[in-house]
Amino acid sequence: MATFNDWLEGARVRTLPAAVSPVLVGTGVAALEGGASWLRALLAGIVALLLQIGVNFANDYSDGVRGTDEFRTGPPRLTGGGKTSPAVVKAAAFIAFGLASIAGVILVALAGQWWLIGIGALAVIAAWFYTGGKNPYGYMGLGEVFVMIFFGYVATVGTTYTQTGTAPWEAWVGGTGIGLIACALLMVNNIRDIPTDSVTGKHTLAVRLGDNRARISYGLILAGSIICGLALSASHWPIALGMIPLAAWAAILARRVLSGLAGQALIPVLRDTGLLELAWGLVVLLAILLF
Length: 291
Prior knowledge:
By secondary structure, this protein is mostly helical. The protein contains twelve helices and no strands.
């Protein structure tokens, strides 16, 4: 029987900042527009968190039944590690998607923008087919594309839009910055798994690039996120003050990855990349609210 800690590991708590952070940025931009709504921000956060958890359980299930997780360098998965039946993990994924849909419908109703239900449906479909179905796009090296679209632009711009009915340039730049860190999170996760993914047919972008170029890409992606944060300061200058320490943090993380850390040694980097993303979102939100 899987323990509570096993389920927490299955939900991949280290990745959850990727869900919350775009909502923080989108709410900050909504505050710039003079229309922030904390209730709608809370609902957007619930939707994003549940979708992220659903993705993680769906990935656990699909990789497990394919045998991709048979030889893992990271923590054992629920399905691949034999901790519980595949059907239970699959059910957990769809329960998370269902709860996210309920919260999403409430948010859409408050915003009065019913066409957004279609965007939400696309998000659930994309979440499942990341590693599910006959031809999962995550196995083709397209995972970062999904992350940028849904955990960058849709989550950030969508949060702003449901609160203000507008999609200003700040939301798009913020979505790019936060989406890039989410891509870095996926990249470092996949760098860790290059040895096993290469032999199981999971051709992630990290596998396609190769170890060295994937590590360089991780650093460049983080640099791009900091540039986006500095660009936001053109609209609200205090954001730049918060980006300075984040730039130093990003440089430290990039150096650790470029040093050649591998396997289990990359797990703390995965955690810290998620925390960097959360800090990025908090810097934008708090700089706008407090200064």
